UniProtKB/TrEMBL annotation:
Entry protein name: DUF2232 domain-containing protein
Organism: Rhodovarius crocodyli
Residue ranges crossing the lipid bilayer per the database entry: 12-31, 43-69, 75-96, 103-126, 161-185, 206-235, 255-280
Alphabetized UniProt keyword annotations: Membrane, Transmembrane, Transmembrane helix
Signal peptide: none
Claim: Oxidoreductase is one of the keywords in the record: no
Length: 293
């Protein structure tokens, strides 16, 4: 067996980690379009994993983290790992897991990972007053930078959903990058497995229990953390709803474009509808197999 850089998988993983780190560093250096390039940092890791396997994906994580730590600082490395690299490698690990290929567990990851990250941060800041004051301070600082004096009700509303909004953007970024990587590899015959059909995705039974527990915590405890946790756990159903609309409008480019424009402009109204459609896909449709347990 070839070793080191004579091994295409090792070379792919190392190169992917370097490119992912450069995309993040592009943003940290304040270069043009850096805020856009940063959100494509998971793409090389996903491409290396979906094309060469699970180990190259985690090798890319290690290489990228080392490059960011040396070139920027440990705080940037933590952001690279927590928001971009680790969830990308986990997604690859679930997508290429032995014993079956479906979207149920990778889709569940889109809700579980940001929810776990939120709980970890809430626990970390528990001794210093909790995470809610920190989120409120971020909202207030952002409003001052924009030169706006937001009303107290608006600040409270934004604070309550801030963590959920960040998690939503993480899940969206991860799923879009995974789709780009899989399509790129499939067109060139490099994908390890064909892309599974989103129509077959169903949440496992244990995931539904987590959603119900988060809903109960929101009703009983209230607060930004409980509400954000519930919203984050509903993200897979949102994705299922969007996939259902995309499937219905396949081949109708104008209508599909109009749908996504409406999603951008009226997300606060259409998001609950997409979650409801995802729940319908979970239970009411009988064409697909039942959820895993």
């Amino acid at each position: 067996m070839t070793k080191g850089f004579d091994n295409p998988a090792a070379l792919a993983g190392s190169a992917a980690g370097l490119v992912a780190a450069l995309l993040l560093m592009w943003a940290t250096r304040g270069l043009p379009l850096g805020s856009v390039a940063m959100w494509f940092a998971p793409l090389p890791i996903l491409a290396a994993g979906l094309g060469f396997g699970i180990l190259p994906a985690w090798l890319a994580v290690a290489v990228g983290a080392a490059v960011v730590a040396v070139s920027v600082n440990t705080a940037a490395m933590a952001i690279f790992l927590g928001i971009f690299a680790v969830p990308a490698a986990l997604l690859v690990s679930l997508a290429l897991r032995p014993g079956g290929q479906d979207l149920s567990l990778p889709l569940a990851l889109l809700g579980l990972y940001p929810a776990a990250l939120l709980l970890a941060l809430a626990g970390w800041f528990a001794s210093s007053g909790g995470i809610e004051p920190l989120m409120r301070a971020v909202v207030e600082q952002g409003s001052r930078r924009m030169g706006q004096d937001l009303p107290e009700t608006v600040i409270q509303a934004v604070t309550r959903v801030m963590a959920a909004a960040v998690g939503f953007w993480m899940a969206l970024t991860l799923s879009v990058n995974a789709g780009i990587a899989q399509r790129f590899l499939a067109k060139r015959g490099l994908a390890i497995l064909p892309a599974p059909s989103p129509a077959q995705a169903r949440m496992p039974g244990w995931y539904l229990v987590l959603v119900l527990a988060a809903a109960a915590a929101t009703v009983v405890l209230g607060g930004a953390v409980a509400l954000s946790l519930l919203i984050l756990l509903l993200l897979p159903f949102f994705m299922m709803g969007v996939a259902a609309v995309h499937r219905k409008l396949a081949g109708r480019g104008v209508w599909l474009a109009a749908f996504y424009v409406a999603m951008v402009l009226f997300l606060q109204f259409l998001a609950p509808l997409m979650v409801g459609l995802g729940l319908y896909e979970q239970w009411a449709r009988r064409a697909s197999p039942p959820p895993q347990t």
